[in-house]
Amino acid sequence: MNFKSKIILLSLLPLLAVGLIFFSPKDKTDDNQILSYTVDPKKIDVKFYWKNENGKILNSIQNLKSFVEAKNLTLAFATNGGMFTDQYGPVGLFIQEGKVIKQINKSNGEGNFNWKPNGVFYITNDNTPVVCKTDDFVNNGKIKYATQSGPMLVIDNKIHAGFEKSTSKYIRNGVGILPDNKVVFAMSKTEISFYDFAKYFQSLGCKNALYFDGFVPRTYLPEKKWIQLDGNFGVMIGVTKRGK
To answer: What predicted TM-score, i.e. pTM, was given to this entire model?
Structure first.
C-alpha cells in the first residue's frame, strides 16, 4: 500500500466509525429498560394466586411472600397477573388448581382489557405454558391455571396492529412463550410504549405474548436485586422453590 492509499484509508476510518454508530441495529428495549425472568414450568413450580385459605384476597406481593413461606416455600419470583376489578377480583377468566373461579370474558368495551384481540395465559396439567387469543382458548378440562388479560402484545410472531398509533407510555408488564417453550415474564423499568414493549417479546422469539397491566405493575425478583413487595392486585403469579 502506497503512502497516498494509507492517507485515504485513515481519512475514511472516522466516517466508518460514525456509520457503525448510526446504522448498527440496536433494540430500544434492552436489559437496561426491561426486567425479565425466564422459567420452565416443567421444572419449577409456577402458580397463580388470589386468596388465602380463609378467603381473603392476598393483594400484595408481601402478603404472597408470607403466604408461601408459611408453607416452607421460598418465593423466587412474583408479579401481578392480569387486570382486576375495583374489588380486586379477576376481570376475565381465572382458573386455579383446575377450578374455574371466573368464566372467560368475551364482552366488548373500553379499556386495555377489551382491546381486541385480548388473550389468555394458561398452564396445562402437564405444566405446558400457553399464550393464545381469547377466541382461540378452549377449556378441555386439562388446564391447571389460567388468567385472561389484554391486549395481546404479539400474535403469531407479529406485533399487535393497533400499537403503531398508540402514544401512551406507562410502566408495563406481560408474559410470552419462548421458542423452547419456557415462559418469559417482563416488566419495564421505565415508562414504555405498547409497541416497544411488544417489540421486546418479539425480539426474544415469542410467537405470542400477552399484556398484563400498566402503571400499577410490580415485580419481585431477588436474584436480580429487584424487590417490590407492595401493590394492591387481584391475581398474582408466583414461582416457588422448596425450603426457606
So the answer is: 0.87
